[in-house]
Amino acid sequence: MASENISTEQLAGLDALMSPLGWDLVAFALYVGLACTIVGSLLLAARFLGHRTRSPLKGQPYECGVEPSGPARPGYPVPFYLTAIFFVVFDVEVAFIASWAVAYDLLGWQGLAQIAFFIITLLIALFYLWRRGALDWGPQRR
Amino acid sequence: MNDVLLTIILIVIKLGLVLGTVLSLAAYMVLAERKVLARMQMRHGPNRVGPFGLLQPLADLIKLLCKEDLIPERADRWVFMLAPAISVGTALLAFAVIPFGAPLQIFGRTIELVICDLNIGLLYLFALSSLAVYGVALGGWASQSKFALLGGLRAMAQMISYELALGLAIVPVVMASKSFSLTAIVASQQSLPNALRHPLAFLIFVIAIMAESKRTPFDMPEAENELVAGYHTEYSGMRFGMFFVGEYVNLIVLGSMLTVLFLGGWHGPFLPSVGWFLIKILAVAFFFIWVRGTVPRLRYDQLMAFGWKILVPLGLLNILVTAVWLLWRG
Questions:
Q1: Rounded CA separation A109/B327 (Å)
Q2: Does ipTM come in above 0.85?
């Protein structure tokens, strides 16, 4: 790390503040700032460059030249909603599994037995959803 | 104070180089995709602007900047205007934790070739790829158009489903390196890349990132012949361009993720480490383009069934088997 070379008598206070991770965080903050600047300037360019005219036809949503009919946000199929719910459930569990994976060797066989119980419960839940047809799109076969 | 100044200058130079490289690589990725696809379809592709069409990205940029920025009358104006920024922003920010080379010695100091070696780098990447869903979902939602809404919904459901498989596929990698830090993950692959150590996880990961980037054969969100253009149907000018930039930066980020997690990162013989890293990213990108030129689009229900009924159970079982094997070997 770069901060190792900062002489201590010069910058005792700053050096303590700027541990290696400290410099990394400075770099990170600068990067975030730079990226936001780029995105912001692109947004401004989109706003102010290019000519603009208004007409009722231009304001309409594009539906292949046919006049739009009905509401723009019709009810959408239930499977999308179910997918979102299942994602929340399963993704949280992936987080648990990942946190076990970092220390799997320290937790040993006992940890493995516990996470295996967890994973198998998860698999059973998944097969239950499967059997109930919650993962099927379109009409049910039965 | 000189040392501090020098450190900051070095950091700024590094940031400039990284951002410049990522953005210009993204621009040329568009050209490369058009060229390679054209060759695969016995065409020439863009070859009018500059030698071999090399100035095409510049021409496209100028064209997009000068186009009219249309906002549909009933659209949710602010959300509509800001959604592309989420798409680009998350893709750009993801690059902050990716190590792209071995530590470098300049002016008697060591420079790590990574912007920020977060100890939870992997979780950071996943958080950002989850946030990226918002750009697409909000863009589709705010447009007040049926096609855009449907495209946004499809993209959302697809991205979150495959994110699950993605998350399960990286667990064996975390077990191999015992760390979430990407630098540590690269270091753990010095002798053998993870792709050979965990082939099944590698396969799941490749499929999942292809779905995550919404590319053929998983490009239902933008299926032209049913949805016009999906979530960006109503976008024009630079905002449309931003979705495009975001998509290609994201392609580079996913390629780097694949490289870092499974292909050994910047490790490789003879060439300098940054060179290896670039070669691997470009090879992954070429593979993506090749797949796009070869494989037809799946049906949406097939896609979701594949994700939930095959990849997720397989990923879970893979974790169990890997853990037993690793503990057995001790």
A1: 7
A2: no
- End of a domain among A52, A68, A86? A52
Strand extents, DSSP E, chain B: 101-106, 109-113
Please report which helix (H) or strand (E) contains residue A133, including its range: none
Answer yes or no: do B123 and A98 touch at CB < 8 A.
Answer: yes
* Domain limits for position A21: 2-52
Total domains present in chain A:
2
> Residue A126's closest CA among A79, A89, A84?
A89
The reply to whether A40 and A85 lie within a common domain is no
pTM for the whole thing? 0.86
Structural domain contains residue A99? yes
B4 touches chain A (CB under 8 A): yes
Q: Which residues of A touch B146 (CB under 8 A)?
A: 61, 63, 68, 70, 72, 74
Q: What pLDDT score was predicted for residue B206?
A: 92
Residue B204's pLDDT is 92
Query: Are residues A46 and A84 part of one domain?
Result: no
Considering only A93-97, A98-102, B229-233, B247-251, which range has the smallest mean pLDDT? B229-233
Q: What is residue A2's predicted lDDT score, i.e. its pLDDT?
A: 45
Angle at B37 between CA B32 and CA B39, to 5 degrees: 100
